[in-house]
Amino acid sequence: MNLEKSTILRLTLTGIFIFGISIAVAYRLFHIQITAPPEVEERTERYTRYTEVNADRGNIYSADGSLLATTLPIYDIRMDFKADGLTDKRFNENIGPFAENMSASFGGSPSSWLNNFKKYRRDGKRYQLLTRNVNYKELQKVKQFPLAELSPYKGGVRFEKKVTRENPFGEKARRTVGKYSFGKQKGIYGLELAFDSLLSGRKGERLERKIASGDWMPLNDSDELEAIDGADIYTTIDINVQDILQNALKKKMVEHDADLGCAIFMEVETGFIKGIVNLDKCEDGQYREKLNHAVGTATEPGSTFKLPAILAALEAGKTSVNTIVDTKKGRHRFHNRIMKDSNDKGYGKISVQRAFELSSNVGISRIVDDAFKNDKAAFVDLLRRFGLDQKTGICIPGEPKPYIKTPDDKNGYWSGVTLPWMSIGYELTLTPLQTLTFYNAIANNGVMVKPQLVKQIKRNGEVLHDAGPIVINKDFLSESTLEEAKALLKGVVENGTATNLRSPHFEISGKTGTAQVAVDGSYKNSSSRAKKYQASFVGYFPSDDPKYSCIVLVNNPTKGLYYGNRVAGPVFLEIAEKFYAKNFMIDLAQKEIERKGPVSLSGYAQDIHKVCTDLKIQTNEINSENDWVATKRTDDGINISPLKTIDKRVPNVTGMAIMDAVPLLENMGLVVQYNGNGVVKKQSLKKGTSFDINDQISLSLAQ
Fold first, then answer.
1. Which of 131, 150, 167 is the last residue of a domain?
2. How far is CA 289 from the centre of its chain?
3. Percent of the chain with pLDDT over 90
4. Which terminus of the chain has a lower count of CB atoms within 10 Å, N or C?
């Protein structure tokens, strides 16, 4: 009994002791967590850390899915010449072959590389840079080199990953696509800035622990914030249209030695911008995308503003297209200034329609002045109704608000000559995009749509945004005035200042513009400054069923010609005809089938296959994997065979559409000139003859 009581007592005391110890330990742990001494906190911070996890920035694509901007990894190659596993034996056996491989891949002599490596070894360099900015493909090659194929511990070679933002199409649409700065961690301009938050995604955060090797290892942590990759932007830009715009504009700017220029190509119904080019002449004489003039540079538009000016008079019922206006001898005084026509003999008495077609400054200004001289505010109110005092709302930053003067301007900028000079495009400013948006509304039956550059936004395949047409103004013109507007613009190309822009394939409507540019606040010529001009053409096609609108602007052409129909107009025509070339080739093929049966055309393989598929023509292919193919008509279809080209030998391009012949010949080094319309019927240099780079070849086209 005493033994039993003794045992129970011992067990009870032991339990009390263990319970007391547990309480003490729990208290100590609680105390450490709540009021941990500095040395414990310091030790914890030294061996654990929260690290920011970058999200992958989204890509920017063209309408067909081609990459316009993307983030790519690049690598710096460094070497630890005192790595623990890099013994003298391993170093001496492998450093020679390593130097030879580095020389072959990155330049420099093998001996130079080897001598540097030996010096770095002697000096005990631990993190020596060998070369910078190696791409992924080059990296994989380097990883096969001696020493580099080993672990950093054994071979000493380390690869430091970085990222770079690349534009695969270089200068094409560069200012519109934009720029991203890794240093500032944000977009700087263009779409990269406009959609920076969507492209950036959201950074994450993870807890890491330092391990024995000194490296940091991620820990599984319920509080970890997962990074969300950026969304992808799918633009409305068609890279083929972009190419057409850039080549056509650049060619004319070089020809006229112009300072800057821009071109915009837009889908009438939707406002989707299919191409946008901005070129500045740089100090080295080359043309590059420096500023987005199409969106952000407002200038006095000149004669392209005559359309809204004359429409205001028509809409107000103050005139009609048949009203006769006396242009006199091309001169008319308004208060203290003389309005002049480019034709110094004048046009005499002509209709409003004819005054517009001939772009008569005297005619248009007299019409508008007579209509609104007693109610100048009514003129400005109509311009506002037309939406010409508002931004287009284009998504990329930098669009200025149009400057339209008002009679009640408190600064006193409205004068006795403001109204007539506004009517011909002076004393106000618009950007090229704002001008195009107005003309596009005429083409779109009086419905003004917002210009757009982004069709879709996606993240991981999920569509976050799918754009459609956005109407920003409608019913701003009566139906009768709208029809008169279309007739005015059609007349310019059919009978007026732009007859040189007529195409046999489709009708073009538009307006030429020639504006004198103020230099140091003055339009006058002097010994210290020459007159500067801005040439432009804006319009749409086809006239009767408009699908596309376009504006071309060239600033300060210096080779003598400066009128809109001679400098900017031909760029518009080339853009329109090259764009329609594929459709035209199919139409031509259809006509040939109706007339002769299966058609035979040579050209770009993909286009030939498309034509044959669309027209349900049987094809027999003979080793036709080439980009360029020749075709031959047979009774049951056509045979497709490779079009043989030999370096420095002229190929046979007869039977090709001009859109195929030009790139083929230019890529071979020839300078191409052509006349006529249709397919190539004759070429000035015979097939197989030798040529030198930049030799000229002339092509004659016919239907």
1. 167
2. 10
3. 61
4. N
Question: Any idea which of 52-56, 467-471, 634-638 has the lowest mean pLDDT?
Answer: 634-638
Domain holding 104, by residue range, is: 73-167
Please tell me the predicted confidence (pLDDT) of residue 610.
63
Residue 189 DSSP one-character state: E
| Edge-to-edge strand ranges of the sheet holding 619-621 | 603-604, 628-634, 637-642, 619-621
Task: Tell whether the torsion through CA atoms of 127, 129, 133 and 134 is positive or negative.
Answer: negative
Q: 63 — alpha (psi -120 to 50), left (phi > 0) or beta? A: alpha
Q: What residues are paired with 189 via a beta bridge?
A: 179
Cα 466 to Cα 236: distance, rounded to the nearest angstrom: 11
The values of phi and psi at residue 511, to 5°, are -140, 135
In a domain, 85, yes or no: yes
Domain boundary, last residue among 125, 148, 167: 167
pLDDT digits (tens, 9 = 90+) for 399-424: 999 999 999 887 778 999 999 999 99
Question: From CA 21, how far away is CA 16, in angstroms rounded?
Answer: 9
Per-residue b or e along 19-53, where b marks 16 or more CB atoms closer than 10 Å to that residue's CB: eeeeeeeeeeeeeeeeeeeeeeeeeeeeeeeeeee
In a domain, 328, yes or no: yes
Range of lowest pLDDT (63-77, 360-374, 486-500)? 63-77
Q: Name residues whose C-beta falls within 8 Å of residue 535's C-beta, 6 or more positions apart in sequence.
A: 513, 514, 553, 554, 555, 557, 562, 563, 564, 566, 567, 568
| Whole-number Å distance between alpha carbons of 366 and 355 | 10
Q: How high does pLDDT run on average in the chain? A: 86
C-alpha 618/C-alpha 623 separation (Å) is: 16
Q: Which region holds residue 461: left if phi is over 0, alpha if psi is between -120 and 50, else beta?
A: left
Per residue in 582-603, is it b (16+ CB within 10 Å) or e — as a string? bebbbebbeebeeeeebbbbbb
Residue 491 or 672, more confident: 491
User: What pLDDT, in 10s, does the model give residues 302-342?
Assistant: 999 999 999 999 999 999 999 999 999 999 999 999 999 99
CATH number at residue 348: 3.40.710.10
What was the pLDDT predicted at 601? 60
CA distance 452 to 197: 19
Does 341 fall in a domain?
yes
User: Is 188 among the domain residues?
Assistant: no
Domain count, the chain: 3
Provide the CA 518 distance to its chain's centre, in angstroms. Answer: 29
pLDDT in tens, 558-614: 988 899 999 999 999 999 999 987 655 555 455 545 544 444 566 666 666 666 665
